[in-house]
Structures are given as structure tokens and as C-alpha cells.
Amino acid sequence: MYLAKLNVSHFRNIAEADLALSPGINLLVGENGAGKTALLEAIHLLARGRSFRTPQAKQLIQHNQKELLVRGEVSSGAMSHSLARSKSSTGANEARIDAQSVNRQSRYAELLPLQTLLPGIGDLVLDGPSIRREFVDWGLFHVEQNYLGTAQRFRKALIQRAAWLKDSPPEDFTMDPWATTLAAAGAEISTWRRRFVDALDAQFQQTLGRMQAGLTCDLRYHGSGFSEEEALEQLAASYERDRRYATTHVGPHRADVDIRVEGAPARTVVSRGQAKLIASAIALSYSAELALRCGAQPVLLLDDFGAELDESHRQRFFAELRTLGCQVIATTTDQPERLVGSSSFDATRVFHVEQGSVTQNS
Ligand SMILES: Nc1ncnc2c1ncn2[C@@H]1O[C@H](COP(=O)(O)OP(=O)(O)OP(=O)(O)O)[C@@H](O)[C@H]1O
Ligand SMILES: [Mg+2]
Fold first, then answer.
1. Is residue 105's pLDDT more than 90?
2. What pTM, to 2 d.p., does this model score?
3. Residue boundaries of the structural domains of the chain
């Protein structure tokens, strides 16, 4: 599945743009402020119903216009579907698949699965644990049918327990009405996460090797309570502390994914460029794992990917993308050849973006 055509009108500084995209690598090239990221945002809106830069749809509508419209054609073998979204300044939205109004968001994500690598992707390695938990949970959402229900049950019990802990709870742990729900749902989430991270690590080792990052790095799920009994024991042991602070100290909401370089926590040793390389390799492994588990190869949106990476690492990354065979839509202010390398350049489709208008290189 890939995005074969994109038509954007009145989206930020883009009055009108028509792109016939390649199933391989596409580069959007232009100066600062030309409208390159805006085009990626338009694709994101089409697939996910929102921008990755702002929750306010009105900001996306071109100044002095009433409505934006994004249309796309996704293709897979002999099959093709058209997707369309419009947003108007009055707040009215329309979303259509093959000219039929479809409100179920998951249908758009199925037809156009995306993975977006924004300039801050290195934060996946450098930031605190919540960004890594979210990243893994987004994968579980795709590969584990019961994930959403279990995660909702867990979160609800966590919130209700916090309120209960505030209200002079009994000293006896066996009187805790939330413990069994938390232990059962928590053990399920922890087990899924560990399995997913193990699979991701296997892919990651291969990807990182091919990218010749020159780093020994591995991913491990750092959690506890993988069975209901174990989780209950930990809740019991933490009960006194939980009562004192009116919060639950143990469970998957406190877990992390350890990213270690030569045995040390990556965030304490890597450079910004290395963090970006590691995070990009994780993202590619994630795409490969999702493709394997649910048969959908996401389209990769890369915004200003070249920044902070040296030429040889950038080029090896693009060579890896070609091996994966997924569609890539990337922005750059650089010479296209310098971003992807001469070996990938022949297979790259280049679009020039200039003050909101787009032309394809012939
Ligand atoms: N609602 C809007 N209407 C018109 N123009 C807008 C609107 N919102 C943003 N812009 C302008 O659209 C342009 C698009 O910016 P965009 O972020 O896509 O640039 P870019 O090509 O990615 O640049 P860079 O290389 O600096 O990242 C900017 O000049 C911005 O000021
Ligand atoms: Mg940009």
C-alpha cells in the first residue's frame, strides 16, 4: 500500500498542489518556509485526522480562505482507494473514503498507515520513560487485539484507586478493592510489552548493523509483575508506601524500555546524532515488525531528517529504507543527492517546493 497521488488545497501556504508520488523514495526540496513540512502535515491530516504540529485545525487553513481540502489516492496492487478530508473555518469537517462519508478513524489508519519521524525523534532515546512507553503501546495497539480494552481497564482502576487511597484506606492490603484488577490487567500489559520489545530488539540489531552505526546497543523492557501473582505480591509490598503518598508505585505505568549502549544507559553516553541514529533504527525496526505482524507496511514521513547526521550515515539510512521497500516522503533543504547518496538518487523522485507551489523534477 502506498500513497500514489496527493492533492492539497488551501493548506497553510499551499494554495494548490498536485503530486504523483513514487512507491519508493520521494524528496520534497526547498528553502526554509517553502511549505515542505506543510505537505507532510497534510498527509498526516489525511491519515490521522489531525496535524502533528497543532491540535487546532483552523491554523491549517490558508489565511483568507474558508476551507482546506486534502485528497489522496492509495494504491496496492490492483486495488486503489481515494481518501479525502476537508476542514472549514466554521469548524465543519468532512472525511470521505471512495466518496462515502466515513467517520471511523481506524479505517483511514488501515488504508494509510503512517510512521512520522520528526526532527525531535532523538528524544525517544534522550527523554524520560513516558515517550518510550507510549511508543511501545502504540505498537501494541496495532498487534494485540485486546490491548485497548485492557489498557483502559488498567487506567481506570489506577485513577479510582488514587481517589480511594486519599480517603483513609484500611491498613489491611486484602481490603484493597482495586488490587486484583490492577494486577491482572497490569500483568497482561507487562507481558505484551516485554514480548513486543524483545521482537523489536531482534529487528533492531539487524537494522543497526546494516546502518553501520558503530554502536553496540540493545533494547530491553524494564518492568515487573509479569504474572498476576507476582503483580499482587508487589502491590502488597508497596501498599504502605502507596497509602502514604496516595498513589500506585508499582505497575506498567512506571516501567521503561532500557536502551543501553555498551551496557550504559544510552541517554548518558550518546551524542545527539547518535541518539537520532538509534531512534531512527528503532523506528525502522518498528515498521518492519508491524509489517510482519499485521501485514501493513507504514508510509514513512521524514521531516528534515538529514539535520544532525553526517553524510555517510544519512546515505546508509536511505539505503536501508530502499531495502525495506517502504514508501518514503522526506523533506530537505539540502541537495537531494547529498541526502540520499548517489546510489539511491536514481530511484528517488524529487519535488521542488517554492513559496507554496510544487513542481516535479523531470
Ligand atoms: N494558515 C496559514 N496560511 C498561510 N501561510 C501559513 C499558514 N500557516 C503557516 N503558514 C506559512 O507557511 C509556510 C510553510 O512552512 P513550512 O513549515 O511548511 O516550511 P518548510 O518548507 O518546512 O521550512 P523549513 O525548511 O524551515 O522547515 C511558512 O512560511 C509559514 O509561515
Ligand atoms: Mg519544515
1. no
2. 0.86
3. 2-113+296-360, 125-265
